[in-house]
Write a structure and sequence with these properties.
By secondary structure, this protein is of the alpha/beta class. The protein is 37% helix and 13% strand. Helix 8 runs parallel beside helix 9. It binds iron/sulfur cluster.
Length: 352
């Protein structure tokens, strides 16, 4: 029987809430979930998303994951990250001349096809596609649509995708970013958080320097993330997806979750903040987190005709034909990285 009725603010629809079957849930058995803390945990019909009522499906997923789950790995300490990593994009203008000293980012969305297969045969081919020289510095940021990531994940059980990624020579790779939404069943949240962390061990096992991405929302999940990091003291760089949080209130909640990790984890952390170009947000990140690297889709904006104006400290539209995109993009990269490099920092504990 329904436990109660939930009336939306509009008053238009009534959602029936049901108590989820926590007693039979694997997460409850593992001490990983203390109960339905989101409204969506009490909704039977979640469409394509995993609901708290999908007990058998969850047990099968976990059994499969446990069979492949690697033991804890050696994680090399990542040091010397810049204040900003400009993201490159597919369709970069030919003749774009990129500074070889700069570390650039490529998103997983641009590395794999819709069916999850990796597009490039070698690190040289990959760099050439993004207008980089054969020894260009590059990292992989797992910013990717969930559907594509699911295909890639399924393929990882049969193909040696982690080894292929290692062969590209990325300076580091972020872990997977299966989405975790505030409006999501607890089961859906925890399964995706678990897969994001397991991907870190898959990558480390393949010999890739890896940065975990934390999408945790609920406090007990943040505590679990802090514990996971405490058990891996050489992981000093952690990532968060700022791009998912559009409003000021959402961004404030995102920042508070990063600060929770900063305060709870006993060793110093450096934060890789994915997808942030708002100047006031960037200044706030550096002030409140201290050690920060920001990634921004500068090349894509350039392709679309936007240039980082260093005086206005924002992207401005440049009419087509007024300035060649191949020159405008390096100018944006220079201006944006200089702005982030000069941002005043809050207190940063020394990395030993
Ligand atoms: S994940 Fe859902 S079903 Fe499982 S214990 Fe948590 S609230 Fe209950």
């Amino acid at each position: 029987m329904p436990s109660e009725a939930f009336v939306e603010a509009s008053g238009q629809s009534i959602l029936r809430l049901f108590p989820p079957p926590c007693i039979r849930c694997p997460w409850s058995g593992r001490g990983r979930c203390s109960g339905p803390q989101t409204v969506d945990s009490q909704l039977r019909d979640q469409g394509k998303r995993l609901s708290c009522f999908d007990i058998q499906k969850t047990a099968d997923l976990l059994e499969n994951l446990d069979r492949h789950r690697p033991p804890p790995q050696q994680y090399p300490v990542l040091l010397g990250l810049p204040a900003a990593i400009p993201m490159l994009c597919e369709g970069m203008p030919e003749m774009t001349c990129l500074d070889p000293q700069i570390l650039y980012g490529i998103s997983l969305d641009d590395l794999i096809y819709k069916n999850g297969r990796i597009k490039y045969a070698s690190g040289r081919a990959l760099r050439a596609a993004f207008q980089l020289p054969p020894d260009g510095r590059v990292c992989l940021v797992a910013s990717v649509k969930d559907t594509r990531l699911e295909e890639f994940w399924a393929r990882s059980y049969t193909d040696r995708v982690w080894g292929q990624i290692q062969e590209f020579g990325f300076e580091f790779v972020t872990g997977a970013t299966f989405s975790v939404f505030e409006m999501h069943s607890r089961n859906g949240q925890i399964v995706n958080e678990d897969r994001n962390l397991v991907s870190v061990d898959f990558l480390a096992q393949a010999g890739v320097p890896v940065v975990p991405v934390f999408c945790e929302i609920v406090e007990e999940d943040l505590e679990n993330a802090a514990q996971w990091l405490e058990e891996r003291p050489t992981i000093r760089v952690v990532a968060g997806l700022a791009q998912s949080w559009k409003t000021s209130q959402e961004f404030a909640r995102f920042l508070s979750r990063m600060k929770f990790l900063k305060n709870q984890v006993p060793h110093p952390l450096h934060f890789l903040i994915i997808g942030c170009t708002s100047p006031w947000r960037i200044l706030k990140l550096f002030r409140e987190l201290g050690a920060v690297t920001v990634t921004a889709n500068i090349a894509l904006r350039g392709v679309k005709g936007e240039w980082w104006d260093p005086d206005r400290r924002e992207f401005v539209a440049v009419p087509e034909g007024a300035w060649g995109r191949e020159d405008m993009i390096p100018s944006s990269i220079g201006g944006f990285t200089a702005f982030c490099g000069a941002a005043p920092r809050g207190s940063v504990p020394m990395v030993q």
